[in-house]
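=== How it folds ===
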Amino acid sequence: MSTWKLITLQCRMELLRMVRNPYYIFWSLAMPIMFYFIFTRVVDTGQADAGQWQAHYLMSMTSFSVMGTAIMSLGIRLVQERVQGWAIYMRVTPLPGSIFFFGKMFVQTVMHLLCIIVIFVAGYLINGVSLTFWQWLFSGLWILIASVPFLAIGTLIGSMKRVDTASGVSNGIYLALAITGGMWFPLEIMPSFMQAIGEWMPSYHFGGGAWAIVRGEAPGLDNFVILTTYLTVFMLISTYIRKKQQAD
């Protein structure tokens, strides 16, 4: 069987598995859209420019959604597969590990694209958020590409031995990053010590790139540097842990 056909079949299989377990997709969409509606239509946040706030918070909730699928969906699925013996079974098949990995990344990309499109549409329908074509496009691309460090966190979660432990840890990391990264509430309204912490969080720089784009600016150099640094660190730790597990 050709390599291309193997890739196609593996991607199709991973997509089917995703469709049959829509729990994570539902919560990755439902909770951000609910938050978006509450903090832009129900709660008076005191923002002087309502239109700018609605666009800003739309980027926050889209980033929040994609970050959640990267950390929780990928990490917990990896643990489940190992506990159920699926990962061991795949290693003894002729399927190359690179194709198996590509299939997983393909499905994560599809999930992220789905989150971005659905939440962008929700922002338009709920508040009539008006951005230029290029702002929609570049903010979506930023959120898609800059989510890679959180996929690395997902692989770290995936190295855990128990599903319930992975679920608890991933939830804690996800919520902590959302709060300290200014995704739920602007970092500027938080205490000074929270602001000092938040400015070094990958979630803050993840959202920061999208916030800059809707303001008509480009993501800052600090956004790229911080996210790249976290990606490198998370990948090194994940690789070390997996090699150690395989050696044991």
Remarks:
- DSSP finds eleven helices and no strands in the chain.
